[in-house]
Design brief:
alpha+beta; five-stranded mixed sheet; globular
């Protein structure tokens, strides 16, 4: 490549193909329930799942460390991105966290961005994790 513009275009194209989910844009900033997809909590696999097609499934995985729940990774298949599926997964996970009195650690960047855009969820975040960063 012979120009800064060409390099930037290549990096942007690469980022668009590799990022785990679309950027966090939310239609309903105050609602954490009422999802458009059926999201289930699979305790055995430690993840929230949405069957979004015949063979495609999306999920938000987590793990438990003592009293904390680490929200690790959001995955939405490429063909299904941009439909709000990741936001649905996060809404259901945070609603369950509130019901179960979980303290969460948002290691997934999408979850962290969602919480930034929804300050009413900030009380779910384990303050010890915030103080360490």
């Amino acid at each position: 490549m012979h120009s800064t513009g060409a390099i930037r275009a290549q990096v942007q194209d690469d980022w668009n193909r590799r990022r785990p989910v679309a950027s966090p844009e939310f239609n309903s900033p105050t609602s954490l329930v009422g999802t458009s997809l059926a999201v289930t909590h699979n305790l055995a696999r430690q993840r929230f799942e949405a069957q979004a097609g015949e063979s495609a499934s999306a999920f938000l995985s987590y793990r438990v460390e003592g009293e904390r729940v680490i929200l690790e990774h959001t995955f939405v298949p490429d063909a299904l991105r941009g439909q709000g599926i990741a936001a649905d997964l996060v809404r259901v996970a945070l609603d369950e966290a509130r019901q179960r009195h979980w303290k969460i650690v948002p290691r997934c960047s999408y979850v962290a961005s969602f919480i930034e855009c929804h300050p009413e969820c900030a009380d779910l975040v384990d303050r010890r994790e915030v103080d360490l960063n």
